[in-house]
Amino acid sequence: MWAILAQPNKENGGWNPETFFETGRRSLDSALERVGVSFVGAPFERALDFGCGMGRISQALAARGREVHGVDISEEMVRLARTYNQSPSSCHYHHNPASNLSLFPDGHFDFVYCVIVLQHMPPSLMKGYLKEFLRVLSPNGKILVQIPAERNESTWVHRCKDWLRPLLPIEVADSLRLRKQSGLPILEMYGIPRAQVEEWIALNSGQVLRAESDKHAGPAWSSYTYLIGRR
Question: How many domains does the chain have?
Fold first, then answer.
């Protein structure tokens, strides 16, 4: 749980499940309020929680709609999500190490949620998943996604790293980072400028309905939560 929400004093089992999953309900309510979305009186048929982890958000989504699917690259996180699943008849978890969402057909979801996930992927992967979100979105569906834009303070070292990292094969970049950190895994931060996000969405038959600044990427980055629909 601490790997998902690394809050102070929560290391080494500091989270308890009830408190941990309650943060998911609050986070979902806050994100929906920020972009002006309400499901009251209009429950969706299917929702996708991309980068679901242990199901913190998908459990909250399950109370709002008929069917929820959580997807994560980590097999262990998916196992834990299934363990803590309170709605097994309507909430389903999938291990998906692929760089696409081919396990779902076109137009399958009315709502796609992805916050504090894409920011740890190189821009090429971010764009690929954004394209997939639009592919699996129903004609009247909505996507709520968070993406950092740019660093607030950028030195020449940061600019060089930001230019070089997307050009390296992922396994090479990972090897260099692990060696630098003495074998300890770290989470890199990546961003796409807002104008480029909006251009990419438009190129893939979508439209940004609303964009609100957020603090999900920390003080070093500007970041936006986007509400996206089909065009």
Answer: 1
d(CA 84, CA 221): 33
Any domain includes 158 = no
- Show Cβ contacts of residue 94 under 8 Å, excluding neighbours closer than 6 positions: 69, 70, 71, 72, 78, 103
Name the amino acid, one letter, at 142: K
**Rounded Cα–Cα distance for residues 142 and 151 (Å):** 28
The 3-state DSSP class for residue 144 equals strand
Is residue 47 situated within a structural domain? yes
**What are the tens digits of pLDDT across the range 19-78?**
999 999 999 988 888 888 877 666 689 999 999 999 999 999 998 878 999 999 999 999
Domain harbouring 104, CATH code:
3.40.50.150
